[in-house]
Amino acid sequence: MTDAQTPPGPLAGLRMLELADEKGQFCGKLFADLGADVIKIEPPGGERTRKLGPFLDDIPHPDRSLSFWHYNTSKRGITLDLQTADGSGIFRRLAATADVVLETFRPGFLASLALGYETLRPTNPSLILCSLTPFGQTGPWRDYLSSDLLHMAAGGEMASCGYDEADVPNAPPISPGGGNAWHMGSHYAYMAIMAALVYRQVAGTGQYIDVSIHEACALTTESAIPNYIYRGEVLRRQTGRHHAPGPTPRTQFRAKDDIYVTALIAGGLNPRNVKNLAELMDGYDMAGDLKDPRYQDPAFVTANTAHIIDDVLANFIASLPAEEVYHAAQERGFTWGAVRAPEALLDDAHLHDRGFWKQVEHPELGRSFIYPGEAAIYNGSPWRISRRAPLVGEHNTEILCSELGLSRGELSVLAENRVI
Amino acid sequence: MPLADKTMSQPQALANVRVVDFSWVRAGPWATRWLGALGAEIIKIEWPETERGRLPSSTTPQHLEVNLNTSGNFNDTNVNKKSLSLNVRSPKGLEIVKRLIAVSDIVIENFSSRVLQKWGLGYAELCKIKPDIVYVSMSGYGHTGRNHHYTTFGPVAQAASGLTHLSGLPDQPPAGWGWSYMDDTGGMYGAMCALTGLYHRNRTGQGQHIDQAQMVSSVPLNGPSLLDFTVNGRGSRRAGFPPGNRAHWPGTPLVNNYRGPTVAPHNAYRTHPGDYNDWCVIVCHSDDEWRRLVRVMGAPAWAAAEKFATVAGRLRHQQELDDRIEAWSLTLGKYELTERCQAESVRALPVQSAEDRVEHDPQLRHRQTYQAMEHPALGVHKVQNAPFSLSETPAYNHLPSPLIGQHTREIVEDLLGYSRQDVREGFTDGTFWPTNRDRFPYMEDMAR
Hints:
The structure holds 2 protein chains of 2 kinds.
Chain A: E1 15-19, H1 25-33, E2 37-42, H2 66-71, E3 75-79, H3 85-95, E4 100-103, H4 109-112, H5 117-120, E5 128-133, H6 148-154, H7 157-160, H8 180-203, E6 207-212, H9 213-218, H10 224-231, E7 236-238, E8 241-244, E9 252-254, E10 260-263, H11 271-282, H12 298-303, H13 305-318, H14 322-331, E11 336-338, H15 349-353, E12 358-362, E13 367-371, E14 376-378, H16 396-403, H17 408-416
Parallel strand pairs in A: 1-2, 1-4, 2-3, 4-5, 5-6
Antiparallel strand pairs in A: 7-8, 9-10, 10-11, 12-13
Helix pairs in contact in A: 1-8
Chain B: H1 3-7, E1 18-21, H2 27-37, E2 41-46, H3 72-77, E3 81-85, H4 91-102, E4 106-109, H5 115-118, H6 123-129, E5 134-139, H7 154-161, H8 181-204, E6 208-213, H9 214-218, H10 223-232, E7 266-270, E8 279-283, H11 287-296, H12 311-316, H13 318-329, H14 334-343, E9 347-350, H15 354-360, H16 362-366, E10 370-375, E11 379-384, E12 388-390, H17 408-415, H18 420-428, H19 441-447
Parallel strand pairs in B: 1-2, 1-4, 2-3, 4-5, 5-6
Antiparallel strand pairs in B: 7-8, 8-9, 10-11
């Protein structure tokens, strides 16, 4: 089916102006891939997130950042210096046409340019303006500097991630990589904006939204906060598994190909799942002594937990490639998974069945590349990558002239004066 | 003035939206918790015999009996909801739930892929009951694809999707995520899908099935690393990856590690008095920031060395740099170090445990992130609030988590129009509570 025949995404018809760096570009992508017209407004020369590697063929260039590519799909892009009178005037005109403005500047910056919510609202009362910032618009840390690592520290992620002392002595708390503080903030910002949009459908009015990345991260450590609030417990870090008040059995085992397998036994060991394990392993002649009828006695299972896990289970996993363990165990109802490097996902048949991987054209390069696809399949209004990330100022003419009505001459003057 | 008093006079974004919530354990309930905070009426369908989320409980206060109503984690995960205890696998229970769906906007569940269909509540059936229903399924692997029947917990979705691999020290086992990150984040996606589907329905009149999958939702979170492979052919099973807390591991090829700019210092450092969570992270994004850090450290002689003056030099001599910084950081408490650094515009923040966040974090205190709320069985405890404020329609926690079946009569009689007699019979015939199970005292009124 061609693009023209498929229905538009669920957010078609919605216009968002995105004034966002690494903190909010993912939120913009979530809107853009679901059909919103997201116009990314960058400073002349391009947003500094374009300077982040890795780059296409390791050649640094604002149009070759793979990080920028991923986080800015389906958006259009213009350049505009908001700190000039002409630039802020153009922004005001664009804001009058927008449903949502998403901004990640330091608190007070937009207001200092007379572009804050109070200034924009009179001409567009249904506007939703969302500020997504490290700590929110108020409070003692409001003006603190941050980074992904800093948020993972203060948000509590690091206090929960690390190693058993026996595995890595004196290990620091570990921050998972990948920029997930920005993901956490962007997910909550998306939710808040969508709620405001639904309210606007009913009430007709817009509103101002203040999202704090620090709070988003502090909310994303599952039971750590309840464990403290209800029981006063501070949790310990453990290798590749849940934080806990005291030691729990390991769940991560090295397979034959040196890839690890996360092998959890739901609800702990009991005669029923030991029998199940024995059947799984017996298919490979690796059941050890688990077929011994004494394992049908719960007390015997408890007394031999260390043997079952550290000898029989560990040996079984060590004898096979991780992917084989993963699929064989899942087919038998065990909730296990291979610890894959991201690139291994390209070979995942299930993701192929779901049409997950997308070919995205880069016409200026005459090439297309594979991108990750949708988190969820919308059966009535599909998700799609409608275009690759914009080149620097790619849609200046289209948006400023064709849509906003500036003449080519005015555009040239703006360029000469570094407004765009 | 407490947040709730100030905001309760304002409208709610999702007022008049009703959600039939079949979800259990963590990811689904985390999704509907937020829809509830935004004002939707969340009706949680539960059955004590098959319940997962209330039990087993490792967060019941030490002085209370562990039972279906005393899990602290359940309370925090299920505020803003009502509970209907209902045997959906009985004909009468199924009829009642269908009447409920007929007057609702959203159905949300996080069972394995074929469960709702087996109950006779697949998407096609839901459409017959409520043609514009927004149906959000939140399974491990989704409803389509050959592995749809696989099961997940957060840690397994994280492993199979590549997220676990991003966390750890090089040449060590993966450190992974010390909690079910993808239960939290899967919950986010569930709520995001529901809101998006609702917006689309309001605009077009069309409902739809949104097939969200925990493992699949994890994959795009690895975007730059995936593109480094699909575009440049560079995999992430390589020397120096993952680089611990650093942007780059010394002595390995210099490449971007998908956590921001490649800079040093970029690490966690021990602070005084050196206990388990006495750590601070410090990052310098530029030579200017490094010079400011040097001033904060009191301009020690070692820091004036030419080899530390540039980012290239600091990356080359990172181990020595980190050792030197830690010798200084150990002389200060983590909050004092943070304040000194941030006063000079140096990026530093403390590693914070849950206790730190609840008791010591001045920002979270100012933002009223944890607010006391009374629960009938647990008493008064702090509950986590939304990380966003909406000026016209604030999100806030307005109901403690429900006792199991607490709202059964209210929903069945007042909302669905069954008679008092029907409610009583439902308790006698096992529709609203198993006949062979002791009832909680608050059920006796409904059963009489």
